[in-house]
């Protein structure tokens, strides 16, 4: 991370750690990727607070400790190919890029994908591919995936995403009614079927169908 002064950086990492992010590699990725690059306008001065912040298209960049928790729950290895549904600012994808072999990230808003892509280029994140589309259908051409992360809330895990997860794979996503507190869950796909873990309460914007208006 190059942006914040050392004191701000220390407090930022402390707040992420104190909310349950303990995986050293995940913490190192959070330290390395400057969240300030993903937040624009007046909100950029709050980039190093552990809060979600508004971004373009009425969307949000997630709370850093939630980004850390979700990344940790994926139990990534450097061999993994990951699908992220909900690029938003691109911050979560950039963190994933440090811990996985290849990251595909998709958002229904073309403007968000364009802006995220410019930060990926600036950071030279060559293993991230960003696409515009309705991610609830997954990315059949690139499937199956070792890991899938959804950063918008659905009532249930979308069937196409479950189908595109490898056996032995892990998917992490918020589920529940939109505008209510949802539950972050982890789904493991085993030879015997799907296993579900409830991780913590969260609040995400909804997973919507189709493309955003600017697309
Ligand atoms: N991961 C993001 C980040 O690091 O900034 C935060 C994502 S934001 C909470 C949720 C995103 O999901 C929004 O950008 C929204 O446009 C996107 N989204 C909602 N429904 C979608 C869908 N069906 N397909 C793709 N993206 C979707």
Automatic annotation (TrEMBL):
Gene3D superfamilies assigned to the protein according to its UniProt record, in alphabetical order: Vaccinia Virus protein VP39
Subcellular location: Cytoplasm
SUPFAM superfamilies registered for this protein in UniProt: S-adenosyl-L-methionine-dependent methyltransferases
EC number: 2.1.1.77
Pfam families for the chain: PCMT (PF01135)
Top-level EC class: transferase
Active site: 62
Main location: cytoplasm
Keywords recorded for this protein, A-Z: Cytoplasm, Methyltransferase, S-adenosyl-L-methionine, Transferase
GO molecular function, one term: protein-L-isoaspartate (D-aspartate) O-methyltransferase activity
Reaction catalysed by this enzyme: [protein]-L-isoaspartate + S-adenosyl-L-methionine = [protein]-L-isoaspartate alpha-methyl ester + S-adenosyl-L-homocysteine
Highest taxon of the lineage: Bacteria
Any one Gene Ontology BP term: methylation
HAMAP family the record matches: PIMT
Summary of the function given for this chain in its UniProt record: Catalyzes the methyl esterification of L-isoaspartyl residues in peptides and proteins that result from spontaneous decomposition of normal L-aspartyl and L-asparaginyl residues. It plays a role in the repair and/or degradation of damaged proteins.
Family stated for the protein in its record: Belongs to the methyltransferase superfamily. L-isoaspartyl/D-aspartyl protein methyltransferase family.
Entry protein name: Protein-L-isoaspartate O-methyltransferase
Organism of provenance: Leisingera aquaemixtae
């Amino acid at each position: 991370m190059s942006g914040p002064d050392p004191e701000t950086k220390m407090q930022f990492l402390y707040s992420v750690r104190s909310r349950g992010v303990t995986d050293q590699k995940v913490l190192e990725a959070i330290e390395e990727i400057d969240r300030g690059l993903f937040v624009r306008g007046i909100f950029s001065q709050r980039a190093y607070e552990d809060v979600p912040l508004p971004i373009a298209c009425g969307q949000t960049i997630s709370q850093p400790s939630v980004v850390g928790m979700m990344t940790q729950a994926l139990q990534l290895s450097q061999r993994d190919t990951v699908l992220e549904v909900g690029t938003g600012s691109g911050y979560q994808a950039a963190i994933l890029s440090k811990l996985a072999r290849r990251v595909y990230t998709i958002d229904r808003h073309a403007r968000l994908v364009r802006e995220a892509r410019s930060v990926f280029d600036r950071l030279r994140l060559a293993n991230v591919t960003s696409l515009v589309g309705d991610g609830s259908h997954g990315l059949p051409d690139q499937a199956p995936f070792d890991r899938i992360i959804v950063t918008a809330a659905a009532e249930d895990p979308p069937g196409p995403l479950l189908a595109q997860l490898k056996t032995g794979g892990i998917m992490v996503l918020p589920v529940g009614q939109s505008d209510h507190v949802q539950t972050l869950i982890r789904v493991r796909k085993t030879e015997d079927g799907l296993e579900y873990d409830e991780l913590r309460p969260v609040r995400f914007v909804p997973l919507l169908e189709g493309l955003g208006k600017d697309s």
